[in-house]
Amino acid sequence: MAIKVFSFFFFVYLLVEMHEISAMVPAVIVFGDSTVDPGNNNQISTVLKSNFAPYGRDYFGGQPTGRFSNGRIATDFISEAYGIKPAIPAYLDPKFDIRDFATGVSFASAGTGYDKATSDVLSVIPFWKEMVYYKEFQDKLRGYLGNDIANHHLSESLHLISIGTNDFLENYYPFPTRSSEYPVDKYEIFLIGIANNFIRELYNLGARKIAISGLPPMGCLPLERTTNIMHGSACIEEYNDVAKDFNQKLQDSVTELNRELGGIQLVMSNPYYKLLEMIQNPILFGFENVATACCGTGYFEMSYMCDRMNPFTCSDANKYIFWDSFHPTEKANFILADHAFKTTLTVFR
């Protein structure tokens, strides 16, 4: 009798658990650049890597993983907030397989952009290739879960896209090719056209829950401030204005796609104002330094220039918004992820 009672309550417990799991996002699937790359660049031939100390010094076990931070990145915290897992693996990392990827995977590549010309600058994975990997992942998932379950799983999973800054700061402004071809507002439209096609393809492949991130105040990144030394290393407002204009165009596009694609839940997450608030009011968030980064001198170091041999790296990254000259610290990543989870992403909870 006791066994039967136990079995009954265990069955009820399983039903409750299954209901709760089915009501939540079962996986976070990620596309984009270094803001969300957990280590795919480790497996390709590029100079843009971060799989060495002091990167990762505050990650689990103090291990450098290829994340461009001292610890976790925003998508790791979003996955944890949904109760899935505390870190999202890189698709190309041979330590993981479909059992790991089923609950979250990132196809992102540091240094890439919407524009294929951007990925060519540092020989990283182009945005279109991330879609190729996603299709390959879908095939593996269907082999693992079965066709019907996999299709449902994909439709309920949150697909996150975080990309675009490199298109301007590594491509459009430093090199004359695109800037001679497009005025900046037309280049924004060109990039958003690529984003729209990517989202449509995700939709055609069964994705229904999609969040796309806008641009940050990219003129305030330490590397950009360093180039603005003639103006007191202030933020480059021209770049910030471009980011705001791009974000408005992207939001308009998201509105149109929600009308066009039946059954889609597409949202835009905008990091611009939250990051700007952190930069303008650092004390409110416990930061002490906003203009320079923790790693090295904080003015220009990134990737191999930010290594264990650099004697200037700070001892406490929690006092800094930026870890290297381009990327946030783990603490800043948490604040940005928490803000997105409690605002834009609530529709998926």
Automatic annotation (TrEMBL):
<dbReference type="InterPro" id="IPR036514">
    <property type="entry name" value="SGNH_hydro_sf"/>
</dbReference>
<dbReference type="InterPro" id="IPR050592">
    <property type="entry name" value="GDSL_lipolytic_enzyme"/>
</dbReference>
<feature type="signal peptide">
    <location>
        <begin position="1"/>
        <end position="23"/>
    </location>
</feature>
<dbReference type="InterPro" id="IPR001087">
    <property type="entry name" value="GDSL"/>
</dbReference>
<dbReference type="GO" id="GO:0016788">
    <property type="term" value="F:hydrolase activity, acting on ester bonds"/>
</dbReference>
<dbReference type="InterPro" id="IPR035669">
    <property type="entry name" value="SGNH_plant_lipase-like"/>
</dbReference>
<protein>
    <recommendedName>
        <fullName>GDSL esterase/lipase</fullName>
    </recommendedName>
</protein>
<dbReference type="Pfam" id="PF00657">
    <property type="entry name" value="Lipase_GDSL"/>
</dbReference>
<keyword id="KW-0732">Signal</keyword>
<comment type="similarity">
    <text>Belongs to the 'GDSL' lipolytic enzyme family.</text>
</comment>
